[in-house]
# Entry
Amino acid sequence: MAYTVPDLSYAFDALEPHIDARTMEIHHDKHHAAYVANLNAALEGTEWMDAPIAEVLANLDALPEDKRMAARNNGGGHVNHTLFWEIMGPDGGRPPSGALSEAIRSTFGSLDELKAAVNDAGVKRFGSGWTWLVWDGTGLAVKSTPNQDTPAMDGETPLLGIDVWEHAYYLNYQNRRPDYLAAWWNVVNWDAVAARYEAAR
Ligand code: MN3
# Structure
């Protein structure tokens, strides 16, 4: 079965004023859809076309060489955006609770220090990419990746990721990536992040 773009569980305008409806619509219906279409085209006719996308990304070296870069960029784009939609929501911004909250405090000092580290990694990511909170196998860590690379390529489990490609924020924030990153925390769905943390550790 070909890969498909998952439906959003909220309306395009549900994240306003922090992320505007037009940006969400283009981002989901055009950008994510293009990654999925290109991924399907790249894997068409190979033994990988029905594989879970995580398996494809973990075995890029096993793909035909002429498919590898397309699978990496578009497969990464598919998994990264699927996560991105899930960890945002209209009732976002409430602080995390429970084990994740404690892990954040013990690792980073406070929630504000975690946010500062994620934002800093996102601002410093030159060009297009993502900034992440990951489970690295033993604890929490912050990192960024270029293009559509996913931390899963490094054996890490992404818990929270913010898209810092210009298409994620340009209509509303133009060149002000730091303002977008600061506002993004108003739409984070910590319950979804906590669920990923529980599954990963
Ligand atoms: Mn994007």
